[in-house]
Structure formats: structure tokens, C-alpha cells
TrEMBL record:
<dbReference type="InterPro" id="IPR002035">
    <property type="entry name" value="VWF_A"/>
</dbReference>
<feature type="domain" description="VWFA">
    <location>
        <begin position="115"/>
        <end position="296"/>
    </location>
</feature>
<protein>
    <recommendedName>
        <fullName>von Willebrand factor A domain-containing protein 5A</fullName>
    </recommendedName>
</protein>
<dbReference type="InterPro" id="IPR036465">
    <property type="entry name" value="vWFA_dom_sf"/>
</dbReference>
<dbReference type="Pfam" id="PF13768">
    <property type="entry name" value="VWA_3"/>
</dbReference>
Length: 643
């Protein structure tokens, strides 16, 4: 049976959401992507309350963007255990949530080594639009643009390959190839002809093929995975990534409202990478380039966490030991405090130690050992979730000892696992619901199409719609959402995935609870929805850049600059410099002048360009820059060309 799909405005249910956001260091502001009631700040802005306006119809995910004060200051929150619970149990002992956001300096000379493999979803659902606006770029179109950006931003001397996957998979090259002008041009031709034509979503086979290749000495593997769906073998995929976690890092990207949270976060966590979600009007390019920039930075090594607690009290780690931290990344760990709690005035200390480029760093933080009470035991449940995620390898594959621990924690804390399930409870009788099963077809919202499309000749686009009440945990401060609560920090994005209804109380929490839905599009509708992004001057300029960072002076560049090729050639100020030097300076000035707000997307390729200019133009660089600023009537500061 197919779940009924209706336009979002016609779904017969709404979402009511209230959130309380707390941070001991203060909150600067809170933004919501959906209509919301005025935000109320309490207690000198250390707490804020926000609620959705009446009538949210699940036409998008609910996202809260939280800006915190003193964002790099470490913090520790200690929560009291449940009354009348055994003191040696997770729920009975106090739990601690430790939040670190190290202020890691940016390396001025990113590493030029690495094997960069891009694994792109080419299943049929990638023909869906990026969002529900009309018109909206198709996901496959945004993916192709993103691959162009990534290819242009790679450093000379590295290795790369591109895989597309669906029901089957295919690679651009039999083995990863060295990044040169020729290999880049060949890859770009393949990217431009890519389509969402490989059927379903099967990611395990291409992953195994990638991991089966021999490592390239001196070039650690950096894997970038893009997908808009979910898979039936999530645990097997995560296990495969984890088993190869010591030889690579995985940066994962969930595209659209239906990407699996468990899959995207799981494979990043298993390899010490980072996860991103791209929804609404967010650009895939900016998040992909941010991840590439991270991958080019030196790795933080020798990460360790040490506790200094009063005698008789110890900390039992519930989160996996941290192995890697990226610049701009927050680290959250949970611990169970066992033993005798000291008097109220006592304090403890925890210290994060790590090494960056041979230099040792420490982030110590002292905290009060007076636990705070929370009726929902939010920190305890998040700690339980973290513990389960490190042990749970799926119903069939989890070792017996780990399964025993998972069952104990899941049942005790009410946090779902692959070995436990929801049980519907009659709240009036406080008993499980019994009797014959009854089917109820609850409509799902149409997220990616206009209602006029429904009923047209169909190509199915898969999306996933979770039940309300689930949200991605936020980091570094606490967020409580009625009727459930979670913790958080920032600026951090918290997303509540939309769709579905719940009519009975459940006694467990779920990270992902999805209903599949299908949305129909005709081929004509697809043509109407896809905007012609190849006409974007920025895309054209990026496409013209060479692998070494330079541009040729040709008609294509003249079109982007909006000038005649003859005028550009005549304006060359230093005749001893070849035309490519002049063209490259003009291109960089144009980027700063026309698209300064998108610098995060072209920053890496600009670095290549500036380095190339200094190596080829030498002492003539200053003259070229001054002439280019005048020729383009630009206000760009020549300092952007500093080596």
C-alpha cells in the first residue's frame, strides 16, 4: 500500500512545537526558518523560549539556528539521576555532558596531498527539485555544479576519482588518477553528461570497491559521499566505513528533506569525518567546499580527555574516545559519574588535550558538581543514545556482549535501538494497546512538487518523512522541546524532520522514524523546474579555470566579464607577461567584485590562482593588479593578492 500524498496545505494535522534553549555562557540570538511566535529571552539571555506559530503544515523541516556567546569556551553540564532508581544504573547516577569547541588556528598553507574520492548518488530521486519553490534547481543539477567546484578547487599533486551509484555503480577512472589539466578536463566532460539514471540507492557495493583499492603512499583517502535517500542496510554500511576508519575520513552530505539522518551521521562518525544536511534554499556547493577546506587542513592528533574529580568519584565514558577534531567543529562527550557525590560546593575538572602540527594544546574547564534536576532526564537519554550508537551494529551483526549492554541501556533509558521497539500505551489504562490491527492511511505532505503536478505521468521520487517529535540533538547547551527534550550549542542548526502523526504515547525515543512517500513528476514538469544554471556567469567562470589555478584569455572569459576580447587584450599593461597572467588577475578581481558574499565557495580556487600569479608574473604582479582594478572599475583591495 502507498501512503496517500497530498499538498502540504491539505494535510489533516499540524505541528505544535515549543523549545527552551539554555546556555550557561549566554545566547546571542535564535532564528527559525518557519513562522514562529516572538522569542522570549530569560535570565540575562542564558535561556530563550521559542514556539512555532499555529498551523505548521510540514512543508519543510523545522530548523533552529542558535548563536551562542563565548562560543569557544568549554562547558560541562551535570544532571541529577532519576529518584528511586538504583544508584549503579545509568539513570540513577548523575550524568555529565562536556562540550568543547577548540579555537584551532587555520593553516596558511593547506596540504597538497591526499586522495579525494567523490561518491555521488545517481538514483532516480536525484531528479527531484532541491526545494519546493518554483522554479528550483534539480538535485542532480546542483550535484554536477558541486562536482565542478570541487574539481576546480583540488590542489595540484593530489589524486582523485568520482563514483556514481544507484542500483549499480560506475567510476570515472579504474583507479584514482593524479590531478592534472588532462585528468581534470576528462572528469569535467563526464560530470556534464551525468544523470540520475542508475535506479535505486545501493551504497554498500561502491564503498567496498573504493576500500578494496590499495592506498596511495603519502596521500590519505578523503571520501565525500552525497545522497538524498536512505538504504535498507544502514548498519552494514556504517560497519563497512568503520572497519576502514583508520585509513580514511568520510565527509557525508544529506541532500533534501528525505536523507537518512542515521546513515549520514553514522558514516561520518564511524570515520572521524563530518556530516552536513542540505535542505531548503541552502547551496550544496558551500557545504561541500567547506568540507573540502577542512580536509586540506592538518589533522588534530593525540586527542585525549582526562578527568580530575574528588576522591570517591569517577567518570565512566559513555561516548567513544574522540580521535579527530576539525577546525570549526564542536566535540560533545558524555560520561556517567559513579561513586559518592561530594558536598554542593565541590568542583571537578576535565581537560581536552591534543596536538596540532607538533604543538600541544589544552582546553581545561572547571565545573560545579552540584547536579541539576531535569524531569525529562535529557542528558541521561542523550548519553544513552551516544552509548548505543557506539555499540549497535544492527539486529543481526551486534556481538552478544554488546547486545546485552544495548538492551539494558535501551530498556532502562527508553532510547530506541535495533534490538528494541516502540510499544503503544493506552494512557488512560497505562497498559499496552491490544486487539486486532487496524489500518489508518495518514496522508503525507507533498514536499517537492506543486499540486498541479500530481496525477501527471509519473517518475517516482523517493523522500522520507519522519514522525513529529524527533529532532537532531544540538550541541553545547540545552534545548528542551515539548513534549520531548534534547540538548544543544552553536551557531548550531537543529532540525525537526516533518511529516506523519502520532496518536498514542510511546515509551521510547527514536532517532529516525520514517514513512516512505512518492511524488509524481512528468518529464515536462522536470524541464520546467530545472533552471538553466549553465548561464550563470559564476559557473561559467569556474568552468574556465585550469587545474593549476590560471585562466586563459579567450572569448569565454570575455563573455563573463561582459567586455570584448579585443578591449581586454589591448588593456594588457605589462607586455612581457603572457595573457594568462592578465586573464587570471582579471578573473580574481571579478570574483571579489561580483561574488564577495560567496567567497566560501571559491576561496580554495582563488588561492590556487593567486599562487599561480605570483609564480608566473613575479614582480609584475602589483602592476597587473592595479591595472585590473582600474580596467574593471572595481573597488577591490589589492591586498587580496598578497602571497
Amino acid at each position: 500500500m502507498i501512503t496517500p500524498v497530498v499538498p502540504a496545505k491539505d494535510v489533516p494535522y499540524t505541528l505544535s512545537l515549543a523549545a527552551t534553549i539554555s546556555s550557561q555562557h549566554g545566547i546571542k540570538s535564535v532564528q527559525c526558518n518557519c513562522p514562529a511566535n516572538p522569542i522570549e529571552y530569560l535570565e540575562d539571555k542564558t535561556s530563550a523560549q521559542i514556539s512555532l506559530a499555529d498551523g505548521h503544515k510540514f512543508d519543510r523541516d523545522v530548523e533552529l539556528l542558535v548563536y551562542y556567546s563565548e562560543v569557544h569556551t568549554p562547558s560541562v553540564a551535570v544532571e541529577m539521576g532519576a529518584p528511586a532508581t538504583k544508584s549503579d544504573s545509568l539513570m540513577g547516577d548523575p550524568s555529565a555532558m562536556v562540550s568543547f569547541y577548540p579555537n584551532i588556528p587555520e593553516a596558511q598553507s593547506p596540504t597538497a596531498c591526499g586522495e579525494f574520492v567523490f561518491l555521488m548518488d545517481r538514483s532516480g530521486s536525484m531528479h527531484c527539485p532541491m526545494n519546493n519553490q518554483d522554479p528550483s534547481q534539480l538535485r542532480i543539477g546542483a550535484a554536477k555544479e558541486t562536482l565542478i567546484w570541487l574539481l576546480k578547487s583540488l590542489p595540484l599533486g593530489c589524486y582523485f576519482n568520482i563514483y556514481g551509484f544507484g542500483s549499480t555503480f560506475e567510476a570515472f577512472f579504474p583507479e584514482s588518477v593524479k590531478y592534472t589539466q588532462d585528468t581534470m578536463e576528462e572528469a569535467l566532460k563526464r560530470v556534464k553528461s551525468m544523470d540520475a539514471d542508475l535506479g535505486g540507492t545501493e551504497i554498500l557495493a561502491p564503498l567496498k570497491a573504493i576500500y578494496s583499492r590499495a592506498s596511495i603512499p603519502g596521500h590519505p583517502l578523503q571520501l565525500f559521499v552525497f545522497t538524498d535517500g536512505e538504504v535498507s542496510d544502514t548498519f552494514s554500511v556504517i560497519r563497512e566505513v568503520k572497519s576502514n576508519g583508520q585509513r580514511h575520513r568520510c565527509f557525508s552530505f544529506g541532500i533534501g528533506e528525505g536523507a537518512s539522518t542515521s546513515l549520514i551521521k553514522g558514516i561520518a562518525r564511524a570515520s572521524g569525518g563530518a556530516a552536513e544536511f542540505i535542505t531548503g534554499n541552502e547551496r550544496m556547493q558551500s557545504k561541500a567546499l567547506r568540507a573540502l577546506k577542512r580536509s586540506l587542513q592538518p589533522v588534530v592528533e593525540d586527542v585525549s580527555l582526562s578527568w580530575d574529580l574528588p576522591a570517591g568519584l569517577s567518570a565512566k565514558m559513555l561516548s567513544p574516545e574522540p580521535t579527530v577534531i576539525f577546525r570549526g567543529q564542536r566535540l560533545i562527550v558524555y560520561a556517567q559519574l559513579t561513586g559518592t557525590m561530594p558536598p554542593a560546593e565541590a568542583t571537578g575538572k576535565v581537560c581536552l588535550k591534543y596536538t596540532l602540527q607538533g604543538t600541544p594544546f589544552e582546553n581545561p574547564v572547571a565545573f560545579s558538581l552540584q547536579p541539576k534536576s531535569d524531569a525529562n532526564l535529557t542528558i541521561h537519554r542523550l548519553a544513552a543514545k551516544s552509548f548505543i550508537q557506539t555499540k549497535d551494529m544492527g539486529f543481526q551483526e551486534t556481538p552478544a556482549n554488546d547486545k546485552k549492554d544495548i538492551l539494558k541501556i535501551s530498556l532502562e533509558c527508553g532510547v530506541i535501538s535495533s534490538h528494541t521497539a516502540f510499544i503503544a500505551i493506552n494512557k488512560d489504562l497505562n497498559k499496552p494497546v491490544q486487539g486486532p490491527l487496524a489500518r489508518s492511511d495518514v496522508p503525507s505532505p507533498m514536499l517537492f512538487a506543486q499540486s498541479r503536478m500530481f496525477g501527471a505521468p509519473m517518475m517516482l521520487c523517493s523522500a522520507s518523512v519522519p514522525m513529529p517529535g524527533n529532532s537532531a540533538p544540538m550541541f553545547g547547551a540545552s534545548v528542551s522541546m515539548s513534549p520531548k527534550r534534547c540538548k544543544g550549542g552553536g551557531p548550531i542548526l537543529s532540525r525537526l524532520r516533518g511529516g506523519g502523526t502520532r496518536s498514542m504515547e510511546c515509551q521510547t525515543l527514536s532517532d529516525d522514524a520514517y514513512d516512505d512517500m512518492t511524488v509524481g513528476f512528468s518529464s515536462t514538469d522536470m524541464a520546467d523546474l530545472e533552471t538553466n544554471h549553465s548561464d550563470d556567469p559564476l559557473v561559467q567562470l569556474i568552468s574556465l579555470q585550469k587545474a593549476d589555478g590560471s585562466w586563459d584569455l579567450n572569448e569565454g572569459l570575455a563573455v563573463v566579464l561582459g567586455m570584448s576580447l579585443g578591449d581586454i587584450q589591448a588593456a594588457l599593461p605589462v607586455k612581457s607577461v603572457d595573457s594568462s597572467g592578465w586573464a587570471t588577475v582579471l578573473a580574481v578581481v571579478w570574483l571579489h567584485d561580483k561574488h564577495k558574499d560567496m567567497k566560501c565557495e571559491w576561496e580554495l580556487l582563488e588561492r590556487k590562482a593567486v599562487a599561480w600569479i605570483h609564480s608566473h608574473a613575479g614582480s609584475a604582479t602589483d602592476g597587473l593588479v592595479k591595472a585590473a582594478v582600474g580596467f574593471l572599475k572595481s573597488s577591490v583591495d589589492p591586498a587580496v593578492f598578497a602571497p
